[in-house]
Amino acid sequence: MNNNKIVFISLLTILISMGYPQNATAEKNKPAHPGQASQATSQSQTTLSGTLLETLNAGGYTYVKIDTDKQPTWAAGPVTTVKIGDKISFSTKMPMVNFHSKALNRDFEMLYFVGQFTVNGKGTHKSKLLDPHSKTQNTTMAPLKSFSKAENGQTIAEALASKSSQKDIKIRGQVSKFTAGVMGKNWIHIRDNSTNKDLTVTTDATVALNDVILISGNLSLNKDFGYGYVYDVIIEDASVTKESL
Q1: Domain residues for 157?
Q2: 224 occurs within a structural domain
Q3: Are residues 162 and 88 in the same domain?
Q4: How far apart are CA 170 and CA 77, in angstroms?
Q5: SS3 call for 11
Q6: Could you tell me which of 161, 131, 156 has the C-alpha nearest to residue 213?
């Protein structure tokens, strides 16, 4: 992963704190495909505005339900003082379909995650830029273990040098970072002796820091999850096998 190209913002931290699913149901809770998001707002529309109908505070965040011209719509963001009847506006850049909030024990057909609410024409305090991976294991990664390249597979250096997307590639690496439940996925960073750079992997599997694992997944290039959460190269939806050395 190229750290200088990645900006993690508090919206992703919201996902962690609000209890985004970390199990097999996460697939249905993935960020909305543009076609799905259009059910609530056109792709060209970047904000929604309306009158506050309902508000809830849970898990350190504020949920609001507003009455738009089309239909009532929910959003969640930083704790904000609001009252019924306020005029609320927010960004539509982070829609989530069929989101389940553990904090509220409630399902939302569509929920927008926002970094700031505008209340009666005045912007509230924006969420600070945060790295959700700061909530990862704090243990320092051990020196790289000795292991060979995956059979019929690639090194991390070879994967990072890819010029096109690939399916079902195999890579062996040592876990340098692990974060669970961000955007409905578990995130693994792996290292090997071919480069000093990490490779990022998304998966449903759970691993521990310094595990040596064999991953098999689809390699994608220039993957943009929104809000500057961009990867030049990433392995997605990988199966993971822990190995003993």
Answers
A1: 136-243
A2: yes
A3: no
A4: 39
A5: helix
A6: 156
DSSP-derived secondary structure letter, 118? E
Cα 123 from chain centroid? 25
Do 101 and 162 lie in one domain? The reply is no
Q: In what order do the strands lie in the sheet with 95-101?
A: 95-101, 106-113, 72-78, 61-67, 47-58, 87-91, 118-119, 122-123
Query: Are the CB atoms for 203 and 240 separated by under 8 Å?
Result: yes
Three-state secondary structure call for residue 13: helix
Element (H, E) at 176: strand 166-182
The residue among 89, 123, 157 that closes a domain is 123
What type of residue is 132? P
- Find residue 4's DSSP bridge partners: none
Extract the tokens encoding 85: 């009847």
Please tell me what DSSP assigns to residue 127.
P
Instruction: Give the pLDDT means over successive 10-residue stretches in the chain (245 positions).
Output: 42 47 39 38 67 87 89 89 94 84 85 88 58 47 90 97 96 92 82 95 93 97 74 95 89
Flag whether 182 is in a domain: yes
Q: 126-165 burial string, b = 16+ CB within 10 Å, else e?
A: ebeeebbbeebeeeeeeeeeebebbeebbbbeebbeeeee
Which pair of structure tokens corresponds to residue 92? 């539509």
